[in-house]
Design goal:
Two copies of one chain form a homodimer. With 325 residues, the first copy, chain A, is an alpha/beta fold. Chain A is built from twelve helices and seven strands. Chain A folds into three domains: 47 residues, no CATH class; 221 residues, Rossmann fold, CATH 3.40.50.300; 44 residues, no CATH class. Chain A is 56% helix and 11% strand. In chain A, strands 3-2-4-1-5-6-7 form a seven-stranded parallel beta sheet, sandwiched between helices. In chain A, helix 2 packs across helix 3 and helix 4 packs parallel to helix 5. Chain A is globular.
């Protein structure tokens, strides 16, 4: 026990000093759901809260990872340290990539000022998002000034991790008709910044007009509800060629200044942290339930009755919860 | 108590006889989370399992409700009774609609053989999907031979209700690039039938080719894992003009024959019912937790510590769960 406590302590110290290997090890610990990982986050948590956390979300295939690579380059040129966390299972950060993507990303793999980590989607979204939130805290504690989180989202409830972001960027491309419809229908929340990537497509300007239409329909209240008078900018980029990246970085900084000035950053973080605590608690309850039931004879018996139409699903759930205390 | 038991009994009897007003009342009871509603489902559950439940999912704006209206017309012409359940917040069934849609749907509102019900999205997805599953059982118990469930889905985990369907239809339109990307990336599960609606668009055939490409990439194993050798058909429709509906109805019947012949319907329903029991239990646990905490002084105290960076979110969750026993 003493040895473990000491090694965790050392790991925490090295992490707080910004040591990359300590950071990699720490994220693996939370990803593997190891008690030392949780203990570590507990220790370093007082040193978090300085990073600017930007979430990049959008459908697969729009070029989120290329965009993040380009923004990372710009932030590195400005002397800032960057951490990237990808929980998009379709991202080149996460799995196989075209050679071109590999080359663009590998530039950053060699830079000590950039730490890139992908987290695999292990089916259990609760578990993954819980681990990803911890990983974002670890990047923050390790002194990464900018933390970029990549998630896939196409018009439904976002994966929880996006709730951790100070600024939410929705990345689309010409052809993202489904996402526009989802915005229009009010199913997808309006983000802080919208990027149209692959903007060399002739349909880009039509798309910008459509989005402006959606934003004006949402009205000043809808926009200000989220951002306190912030007007959502639409930025056209060609991330693969570095086009529009400076403009995007400027918009990100403007958004940060805006929420800092309006006192919204604190308010947003309070709400996010509340959701985070509840989400972790709920995910653990569900996981505990499923583990308890995997080999449970009583659950199998209840299930047979449900399949035979003798007991309805809700009554079976009631019986389960009663048995669980 | 006796009076309530008697009136519930009467309601159950009237429901089983197919009485529309009893059905409407019963669904309101489960939607409002009233104990009588759950009791009613418990009573009529042994009379469920006969309906063919088809889930229609897809991004907003592709014309799912018009398509369901057209399929409903075809099934009515074949003498079958139909129940429609919409939990798509952007659907004309659920909220405002263009005049054209209203007219197309109103034809069915006057038909005793069709029962249409929309359920509002009340933010708490767990609660809504729980109520929707109960409503689907009520439609089944009331003798609806076909139950069509409309949900919005754009490439992420579907709302649980789709798990209740025997057959899952993904509805797309030319321009649904995000959904194609999501299919390609393996983020969206391959459905049983794919419909390209609004197929008068010149880009339709290109889209069909793209989808065929995705399906062939997914490979025979991926396809057969879900359907035991079922090859996912792609059906082109123009629902507003009734084009392609007969072909779609044929494919739906073929799929049903296929899963019946292969013994898969029973297997699918067993898996769905298992998920349903677990989802109801988990949703209730989460709701109970949130209710318990709304006014909880200890939770507020923990939250302040988290906001002040003195206690990390995971440790706060641990403390909450320990306090909850």
């Amino acid at each position: 026990m003493i040895a473990r406590a000491m090694s965790a302590d050392t790991l925490a110290q090295r992490l707080l000093e910004g040591d990359r290997r300590a950071l990699a090890r720490a994220i693996s610990l939370v990803e593997d759901d190891r008690p030392e990982g949780w203990e570590l986050v507990r220790e370093v948590y007082p040193h978090t809260g300085s990073a600017a956390v930007v979430g990049f979300t959008g459908p697969p295939g729009v070029g989120k990872s290329t965009l993040i690579a380009a923004v990372t380059r710009a932030r590195r040129n400005a002397g800032r340290s960057v951490g990237v966390l990808s929980i998009d299972p379709s991202s080149p950060f996460t799995q196989g990539a075209l050679l071109g993507d590999r080359i663009r990303l590998s530039e950053h793999f060699l830079d000590q000022g950039v730490f890139i980590r992908s987290m695999a989607n292990r089916g259990a979204l609760g578990g993954l998002s819980e681990a990803a939130l911890q990983a974002a805290l670890l990047l923050d504690a390790a002194g990464r000034e900018d933390v970029f989180v990549e998630t896939v989202g196409v018009g439904q409830a976002e994966i929880d991790i996006i709730d951790h972001a100070d600024t939410v960027v929705l990345v689309l491309m010409p052809g993202s008709g489904d996402s526009i419809q989802a915005l229009k229908a009010g199913i997808m929340e309006i983000p802080d910044v919208i990027v149209i990537n692959k903007a060399d497509n002739p349909l880009t300007d039509t798309m910008v007009r459509e989005i402006r239409g959606v934003l004006s329909l949402a009205g000043p209240e809808a926009v200000s509800e989220r951002g306190g008078g912030w007007r959502v900018p639409i930025v056209k980029t060609e991330a693969a060629r570095g086009e529009g990246i400076d403009a995007l970085v400027e918009r990100l900084q403007e958004h940060r200044s805006h929420i800092l000035a309006a006192g919204q950053l604190a308010e947003r973080r309070r709400r996010n942290l509340r959701n985070e605590v509840l989400s972790i608690a709920a995910a653990r309850m569900r996981r505990r339930l499923e583990e308890d039931l995997r080999e449970d004879a009583e659950f199998q018996r209840l299930l047979e009755q449900v399949v035979d139409r003798r007991l309805d699903p809700a009554s079976a759930a009631t019986a389960l919860l009663a048995a669980a205390g």
